[in-house]
# Entry
Amino acid sequence: MRGLQWFNALSANATPVEGLPGSLKVADGVLGEQAVRYIAVVPDPHNRFPRARNGEVGLLEGWGLAKAVDEAIARGDKRPIIAIVDVPSQAYGRREEALGIHQALAAAADSYARARLAGHPVIALLVGKAMSGAFLAHGYQASTSMSESGTSTQGKIALCPRSFSVSASIGAHSLYSPETNFT
# Structure
């Protein structure tokens, strides 16, 4: 739930991206003068794969993450991609294994890596669990990682686009990433 809280707080004025599984929240917004894409995996009690109903990263999530990141790359504007990470696990299950969860999660990791290599700053905002193959698919390929502890429901994030330092806060809890040069 913390991932959803952070996503909602950070993307309050952003435009939701449609056409993705219900377990993915994706939105395009602006921070300062910088266009950004927010991406979060969230619980979906109606997911057709029962092992992926509590925020786990499964087949739909892996392919959906790949699609969301690939769409950001296709825009050509090198916008930062902010992966809001609160993932308890990959979706372990016989059906998932038989249908190729390894390929879905590899596709997500590949998309994040290609985004980073194409010049997109990729920021992993770790606000909850970051476990197993789920973290490998959603967050591990980041240029910068930030972590948070505590809970709240109001948040903000600030980017310094030239050298790209990141700070974020939600309620009384703050994150800071030292200045990083992505040029």
